């Protein structure tokens, strides 16, 4: 009987192994369909179209790069497509071109069919990782790997190589690199890992436990995307992360931390689409009520928290600024598009204003009307912004008279980094704490995105068409092509991570206590 059971057990082993092999074979076969091989001619054609579209429609193409530099990187790209490549391999070349331009509004992604296929695969890294002090830190408490462990390698790829391989996925205004550092870890082990390294059944992780030099290795099974999302909810830093998460917190809020310090938080500037939105007067009334309280109670300290705010719409971010300065200001000093407002360049390849949905004919009519209303007739190589949409904002009363502490970080972008620029430019009695923003101090390309689909690879590329010079006076500590530089650079620390503390706000509260 025992021999028979042993025979059954042994007989089943090859069957299970064959099943796993068959499953991997099916994935491989499907990848050949979705991640199709492109010919050199197809890629060269897509490259030509990719550049031509940017030459005609992207006013920021030569903002931070010379023509010689752009020529050089496209020459490199051309040399990389002389043999057949998978779509994902070609995509990684386009990512580097997209990143090189220097705009946080640049974005390129593979086609929807490939994205959907990858999202259905059981190949996702199961847990969250954190960027702390230049290291990859494990962000879950598990039996296999304790929270706070330093990850040394995954599937044989060293930590520094892992991080650097994902830098190209994160675009920033000008020469900013801060978002690349944290994003290469905190936003890369979902879909981007599958694109960069392929689909794996498991992950061999080498690590050192916290406060230890012992090197250990474990193998973690890959999971489906839904399981990964479920796991992320129980990550070690969830409670601290939620403080600045616009998916969790209200879009705007105010509270008193203590009798001398208020906290005004903006998680995202999407509380109103424009001044005609019914939500806009509600928001304006809230802002005024906050500054009435601060003035009436003579609150000496105000923390303005715009960390990880991805931006939003005009004229939302300008509203708090009017109480923080005695100086009139504008959204910009110059804004234009580099094509005729009455045309959309390369309409044959035009997709829309979002990669998620192709623009309908009715939406296209509305889009054309938007361009006509917002920009003047084409003259001298550009269509300038209609001045009606760039009003002067004057200071409001009661203006805040205490000390302002602005918290920003590497994920503060677009409208939020624009507010940070105005605060640094014109704010009264201001101290900036945190990390250099991904959005620029002096300017950016923004306002309106266009998306194009390349004909052969079906890769979509997005960029914002309006060249914006912000109302930002020259400052000695603000180099061209950089984000808003803080007075005190403060990144989250490992010790505070382990103790569930918010490093940056704790630093501000210490400054207040010490009256610095």
Please give a structural write-up.
By secondary structure, the protein is of the alpha+beta class. It has helices spanning 2-34, 40-57, 67-80, 87-101, 112-119, 159-166, 178-186, 191-197, 225-232, 238-241, 279-296, 318-321, 361-374, 414-426, 494-498, 503-514; strands at residues 37-38, 85-86, 107-109, 129-132, 135-138, 150-154, 157-158, 202-208, 216-221, 252-258, 261-266, 301-305, 329-330, 332-337, 350-352, 383-384, 392-393, 403-408, 430-434, 443-453, 460-470, 488-489. It has 3 domains: 37-111; 119-236, Roll (Pdz3 Domain); 243-449 and 465-514, Alpha-Beta Complex (2-enoyl-CoA Hydratase, Chain A, domain 1), CATH 3.90.226.10. It has 16 helices and 22 strands. Strands 3, 14, 15, 16, 20 and 21 form a 6-stranded antiparallel sheet that branches. A 6-stranded mixed sheet has the order 10-11-12-18-19-22, sandwiched between helices. A hairpin with a 2-residue loop joins strand 10 and strand 11. Helix 3 (67-80) packs antiparallel against helix 4 and helix 6 (159-166) packs across helix 7. It is globular.
């Amino acid at each position: 009987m025992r021999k028979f059971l042993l025979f059954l057990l042994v007989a089943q082993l090859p069957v299970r192994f064959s099943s796993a092999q068959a499953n991997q074979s099916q994935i491989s076969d499907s990848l050949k369909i979705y991640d199709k091989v492109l010919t050199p001619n197809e890629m060269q054609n897509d490259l030509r179209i990719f550049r031509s579209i940017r030459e005609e429609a992207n006013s920021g193409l030569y903002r931070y790069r010379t023509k010689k530099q752009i020529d050089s990187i496209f020459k490199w790209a051309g040399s990389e497509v002389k043999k057949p490549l998978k779509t994902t391999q070609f995509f990684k070349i386009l990512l580097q071109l997209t990143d090189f331009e220097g705009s946080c509004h640049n974005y390129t992604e593979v086609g929807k069919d490939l994205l959907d296929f990858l999202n259905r695969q059981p190949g996702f890294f199961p847990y969250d990782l954190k960027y702390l002090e230049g290291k990859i830190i494990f962000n879950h408490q598990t039996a296999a790997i304790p929270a706070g462990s330093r990850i040394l390698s995954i599937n044989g790829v060293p930590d520094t190589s892992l991080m650097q391989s994902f830098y190209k996925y994160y675009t920033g205004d000008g020469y900013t690199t801060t978002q690349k550092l944290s994003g290469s870890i905190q936003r890369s082990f979902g879909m981007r890992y599958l694109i960069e390294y392929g689909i794996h059944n498991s992950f061999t992780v080498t690590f050192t436990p916290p406060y230890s030099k012992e090197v250990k290795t474990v193998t973690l099974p890959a999971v489906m995307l839904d399981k990964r999302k479920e796991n992320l909810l129980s990550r070690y830093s969830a409670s601290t992360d939620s403080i600045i998460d616009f998916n969790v917190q209200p879009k705007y809020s105010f509270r008193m931390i203590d009798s001398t310090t208020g906290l005004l938080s903006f998680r995202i500037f999407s509380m109103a689409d424009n001044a005609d939105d019914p939500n806009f007067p509600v928001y304006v009334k809230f802002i005024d009520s906050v500054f009435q309280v601060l003035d009436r109670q003579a609150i000496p300290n105000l923390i303005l928290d715009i960390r990880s705010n991805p931006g939003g719409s005009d004229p939302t971010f300008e509203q708090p600024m009017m109480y923080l300065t005695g100086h009139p200001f504008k959204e910009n000093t110059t804004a234009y598009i580099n094509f005729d407002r009455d045309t959309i360049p390369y309409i044959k390849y035009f997709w829309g204003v979002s990669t998620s949905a192709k623009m309908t004919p009715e939406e296209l009519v509305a889009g054309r009307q938007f361009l006509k209303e917002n920009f003047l007739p084409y003259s001298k190589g550009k269509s300038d912004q209609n001045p009606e949409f760039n009003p002067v904002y004057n200071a409001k009363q009661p203006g805040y008279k205490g000390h302002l502490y602005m918290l920003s970080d590497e994920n503060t972008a677009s409208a939020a980094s624009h507010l940070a620029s105005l605060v640094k430019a014109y704010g009264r009695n201001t101290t900036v704490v945190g990390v250099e923003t991904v959005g620029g101090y002096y300017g950016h390309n923004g306002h309106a995105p266009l998306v194009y689909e390349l004909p052969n690879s079906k890769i979509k590329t997005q960029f914002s068409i309006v060249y914006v010079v912000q109302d930002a006076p020259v400052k000695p500590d603000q180099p061209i092509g950089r984000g808003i530089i803080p007075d005190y650079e403060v990144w989250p620390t490992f010790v505070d991570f382990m103790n569930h503390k918010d490093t940056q706000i704790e630093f501000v509260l210490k400054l207040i206590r010490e009256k610095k």
